[in-house]
Amino acid sequence: MQTPTPHIVEVAIPLPLEGSFHYVMPAHLSPLSLPGKRVLVPFGRRKVTGYLLGDAEPAAGELREILDILDEEPLFTPAELEFYRWIAGYYLHPLGEVIKMALPAGINVVSRYRCETAEDGTPVLREFLAGGKRVRTERIFAPVDGAEGRPRGKGLEILEYLREIGECSAAELRKRFGNCAPQLQRLVALDCARFTEREVYRDPFRAQSYEHDAPLALNQSQAAAFERLKEALSCGVFSPFLLHGVTGSGKTEVYLQTISEALRAGRSALVLVPEIALTPQLVGRFKRRFDCGIAVLHSGLSDGERYDEWRRIRRGEASIVIGARSALFAPLERVGVIVVDEEHEGSYKQSEGVRYNARDLALVRGKFAQAVVILGSATPLVTSYHAAMNGRLQYLHLPERVRELPMPETVMLDARGQKGETFLKPLVDAMWENLDAGGQTLLFLNRRGFATYLVCESCGHVLRCPNCAVTLTYHRIKGRHVCHYCDYSIVAPAVCPHCKEGAITLLGRGTERVEEQVQQLLPEARVSRMDRDTTKGKGGHARVLKELEDGSVDILIGTQMIAKGHDFPGVTLVGVLSADASLNLPDFRSAERTFQLVTQVMGRAGRGDKPGRVLVQTLAPEHYALTYAVAHDYEGFYREEIAFREDVGYPPFAHLASLTFSSVAAGQGEASSEEAALLLGKIKRECRLRVEILGPVTAPLGKVRGRFRWQILLKGRERAELHRLLRHFRTGFSHPSTVRLTVDVDPVEML
Ligand code: ADP
Ligand code: ZN
Q: Which of 247, 576, 568, 225 lies closest to 374, judged by CA?
């Protein structure tokens, strides 16, 4: 007799290991084997959850057996697997980890060990399986016809109720009759009632009902944009758009109507927004407009709630998904429209694990799905605008606000030569005036970044790297100011090299004391603060906003949080205190970030019926990021910024990747990074790749959570060449297990 050929399968395992693994599928599980299901497999001395990718060719060598198949239905489709493979390839990340990240958290089973006492009293380690998320069920009770049992008292009442209404969940019965578990048990024992288990969803938004609203009659620019979107939808091919429009120009209305069009054609829609903009108001707008199922994915969901939303989507019970970054992986099928609102937001980039950018991947997913992708923003990324100018994105413009609101009057205050005063006199005067007039004031503090930087007290000149044009970062250990892109460094000069007279100081002061200072300056004002500390915990955010809304606060001091997503109708004065802090981050995007930020903050003034004023206090009143922001001139800013990017060779004129090496012992990461740089240089020469290799250098955040960090920055003119270098490097490079290496393709934050 011949032995049958074994059934070999390919499995991806969510561990930081390259490649996939082969196992034997035992005969009794073989009929259930389908790609997309999870399997329990032996791995080393453990048992772990893996993902079935498909069948594989029999190969030589001993293979271990699959222990179990964990799902009845596949968790992902072949098309989704293609998408995951693309992500794994692009971000150079193991496929198993990509799949794990894309699926709801907490569903995998892994083995753990527990210390137990053996019969002879010696301690032993016992393996057990942990994890795996449960589906929540509830019991539904129904009466049994013609039952002979005779319950009494409360039991009889319950039975009569059940006969009256047919069936009822245990939870409902409990609400009506109080604790009635014993009576129900008795009814079942008497054969008077029976129950079934029914699956329920943990519904975070509960049954809130919304009044229906109708589409608005579009204005001219909205209608023009909508026509083109509709046209693209009807073609049914991948069509990427940039929708450029100031806040209040009616972008959301265009999204809504485009989505409506897609639904009519039997397709679904995915809407990505930054976490901070994912408010009940926004969700309400969608729920009022659409009758179909809407799933909402945000960071406030428990793992269980998220899992339930995910299952609803998987089963086709929701045709619209609204969510932050990770909603990109929602298992929607037949996607017709993908919206990325506020596409310029850095928060679309995942900063650990698989370092994907949801804004970029929205385009990739849209391509796979032949969908319309709309990137919306008031301040598009320079790279997006450049793509639109070159025809790679179709450009849609909404130049005006729907309701004629006057643009706020904006004044720049020159803080040079003021010896680092927190508040310049005109700002203090304006705060007084506004307080007297009963208006509210918003003070925006730019607390981004840790960085301290060198600046001239008298002319405001900031010391930058002559090669890379980013600010220099002070390294205490070296006692020098270092460029963290190329390692150029200097000792702080005594006088300004620019004006030759001002003293150089280290700026980047703490801002915690600002609230105190405001209170001292304006003792009568009611002052409140909104930042990460004061909004900790559930509802903290809403509480501060409520104070502002009901007028119990005169002056609100806030960080990045107040810049986005909120309407403050009572605010008539906005003060920007430290525009410079983000301008001088050691990052080539610092001008772009500052322009976006200041534009956003300015948009907070005068959104009610009173016109607003904005005062921007800065050491760099001539910097183009500020002058164009204040003049509401996006195109002007774009022209300067794109010229700078081209000059120095930054995106969109180059593609970047950063490699970070970290270790607890200082020397190890450094040694590894130096070996890496040598290998990269060798590959570059052998393959003749046009990629610049910068570093290794100490990372700007030189030590994080006890680990020393080194960075190498790669800059390639051609994306394909950069990826070739990275792939060769990945296969050829090995480092000690004490060193951690992370590869970040298209890094956003390079700290
Ligand atoms: P954005 O998303 O660009 O900030 P919205 O779509 O939220 O703009 O529109 C701003 C406000 O104007 C909303 O209150 C919206 O209901 C209203 N609006 C939008 N389009 C129209 C329109 N065509 N006619 C009347 N009101 C509109
Ligand atoms: Zn440099």
A: 225
